Amino acid sequence: MDNISLKLLCDSTYLPVVLSFAEKASQAFGLGKKEIFAVRLSAEEIFTYLCRTIQEKDVEIICKNCGYCIEMTFLFKGEISLKVFNLTSSVFPDRTENLDEMGLLIVSRLADNFKILKNQDGTMSLVLVKDKIYPEPGNDLKKICFEKSNSFTIKEPNNEQIKIFATSVCSFCDDMGVPDFF
């Protein structure tokens, strides 16, 4: 699994660097536009929250390609409020004391998985997982034509070839040969 990391001072002047990092890493690891937007917004909210709340100002952001998803980890020293990560939690925008937590509440709802870990070395990891969205199979897919050949090569497919195969496999079967859950 590939990963990219960024270590920087937790200062809001570096927010454009964090946003660019989140966007470019997500793009490099194959996320679509909607997922990239969600990761970028999440990175913005998390970094802004950390800038306002943690005392130790060094933060490391690690973006890991997990194949079907990306995992973005914010590694830092300090404590944060865990209240907003409760699924039943609510934040009222008319109360100014809740504004710090509203961004994290948004992030926890945007992510496909979100967790906080207390590491043995005293650091904390705030981990955001965003799954890749694959295109829905449909009738609008072009049927891929294969030429009959006596020679062929077997090779490991790349991610894009797997996506094309998975979404077009139904176009080669009649309706009776495709299970209902496809």
Labels describing this entry:
182 residues, alpha+beta, 5-stranded antiparallel beta sheet, 4 helices, elongated
What does this structure look like?
With 182 residues, the chain is of the alpha+beta class. 31% of the residues lie in helices and 21% in strands. It has helices at residues 15-28, 33-53, 99-110, 159-168, and strands at 3-9, 58-65, 69-77, 113-118, 123-131. A 5-stranded antiparallel sheet has the order 1-2-3-5-4, with helices on one face. Strand 4 and strand 5 (123-131) form a beta hairpin. Helix 1 packs antiparallel against helix 2. The longest helix has 21 residues, at 33-53. The two termini are 29 Å apart. The model has no long low-confidence stretch (mean pLDDT 80).
What's the layout of helices and strands?
Elements: E1 3-9, H1 15-28, H2 33-53, E2 58-65, E3 69-77, H3 99-110, E4 113-118, E5 123-131, H4 159-168
Antiparallel strand pairs: 1-2, 2-3, 3-5, 4-5
Helix pairs in contact: 1-2, 2-3
Largest sheet geometry: 5 strands, antiparallel
Question: What is the succession of H and E elements?
Answer: EHHEEHEEH
Structural class: alpha+beta
Helix content: 25-40%
Shape: elongated
- The averaged pLDDT comes out at 80
The low-confidence runs, each spanning 5 or more residues with pLDDT under 50, are none
Beta-strand residue percentage: 15-25%
Q: Compute the gyration radius: what is it?
A: 21 Å
Q: How many strands appear in the DSSP assignment?
A: 5
Terminal CA distance: 29 Å
| Spatial ordering of strands, largest sheet | 1-2-3-5-4
* Individual helix count: 4
Oligomer: single chain
